[in-house]
Design brief:
With 208 residues, the protein is α+β, with helices and mostly antiparallel strands. 32% of the residues lie in helices and 30% in strands. The chain is built from five helices and ten strands, in the order βαβααββββαββββα. It is globular and about 50 Å long.
């Protein structure tokens, strides 16, 4: 569920006063991640790369308090649960969206991931979970990219993580990731912390 909170009583009071009425409140950071351990985990577990990546995103975000805050219609809300939104190619050649409830249990998260994405692909219908903090994701794996920056729309202010095709080097496999967030929700320091935590989750995923 979500609860409205008073901005002046939150850690984002100053940011709310500065950025709530900004015509462009979104900020994007880009980082190249080492995903070698994620590929090892995929091979060892048989879990899809995207499912593993989404789980690591949820793990990293769940430890940062600001991820549970989001401005909506001039107000500030706190959520108590996270969901990971993914884009699914459906059987008609189009796309649909589906929300995957985040679980710290990888096996449970993967079961939900497979169930929800398969349903979206087969039924060609999007599905959303209400009153949860949504972290959007998008994988652009058709080509190698150096940078990814998403457009801003006033309709959505949720954080978004995008990644391109990974590239294999001599000693490690790397992948560009961009993280777009609303400045009221968090600042660059929190975003940098998230990206560092995401790298840490990826690095340790094959040890879990």
């Amino acid at each position: 569920m979500k609860t409205e909170i008073l901005p002046q009583e939150s850690s984002r009071a100053e940011a709310f006063s500065l950025w709530m009425s900004s015509p462009m409140p979104m900020v994007t950071l880009v980082k190249t991640l080492n995903v070698s351990h994620l590929l090892k985990m995929r091979k060892k577990s048989g879990i899809k790369f995207t499912s593993l990546m989404c789980w690591c995103i949820g793990r990293a975000a769940s430890n940062i308090e600001e991820f549970y805050l989001l401005p909506e219609n001039g107000k500030l809300f706190r959520f108590d649960k996270l969901v990971i939104n993914v884009i699914v190619a459906n059987r008609q050649g189009g796309i649909n969206f589906c929300d995957i409830p985040f679980s710290d249990d990888l096996e449970q998260f993967n079961r939900d991931y497979l169930e929800f994405t398969q349903r979206a692909a087969t039924e060609c219908k999007s599905s959303f979970i209400e009153d949860c903090m949504i972290i959007g994701t998008s994988a652009i794996i058709q080509t190698e990219l150096d940078c990814i920056v998403n457009q801003y729309t006033e309709k959505y202010s949720n954080p978004l993580v995008m990644w391109g095709k990974y590239r294999k080097g001599l000693f490690k496999t790397v992948m560009p990731v961009s993280f777009q967030f609303h400045h009221v929700q968090m600042d660059g320091g929190h975003a940098a912390r998230f990206l560092e935590q995401l790298q840490a989750e990826i690095t340790s995923c094959d040890k879990k």
